[in-house]
Design brief:
The protein has 49 residues and is α+β, with helices and mostly antiparallel strands. Strands 1-2-3 form a three-stranded antiparallel beta sheet, with helices on one face. The longest helix has 12 residues.
Length: 49
Amino acid sequence: MDTIVGKDGKGAIVTLVERNTNFTFARKLPEGKNAKALAEMVVIMLLPY
């Protein structure tokens, strides 16, 4: 898991990579690198699995 922060800290992208299959998830975090928003987005991304 990693985050990519945009210019001036506005917006971010969270990425998740499954190492065995290289399956990659990426989602935009419009609020930037906020811990609560990041945790909620990770749960949403992994919920179907």
